[in-house]
Amino acid sequence: MRFHPLVIGRANKLPIFSSKINAGFPSPADDYVDKKIDLNQLLIAHPSATYLVQAQGDSMIEAGIFSGDLLVVDKALKPRVGDIVVAYYNGDFLVKRLCKGVGKELCLRAENGSFRFPPIKLTEDVTIWGVVAGVVRQTRRPHS
User: Fold this and answer.
1) pTM of the predicted structure, to 2 decimals
2) Could you list the residue range(s) of the whole structural domain that residue 107 is in?
3) 96 has catalytic annotation
């Protein structure tokens, strides 16, 4: 897992159209921009407590997290049941869903239909490093 320092610079506002899109193109009638949005404001609530980390593997594909995605992780957010978190366990960093297990104990659960990722009970051996607040994904990979 590679950590990326987060640098917040000047705002980079991008246009956002007022119409919603159904996996198609904006209507020709919408040839004006309703407003502009800064992705820093959209994705980052606590800049000094936020970092980016690149996901690796397929244990969270049913949560929409794929290998290569950049995760926006906020250390200032208090983890709640149902959140996706970054945790340190057994010498590795993991991204998993925080859940309640069979006996109502807290655990970390993968979101991949395979049984090769059993839940991990939260013990003193597990440290939560932050809550995943967003996911950034490129749909067109650069040529190598």
Assistant:
1) 0.77
2) 46-136
3) yes
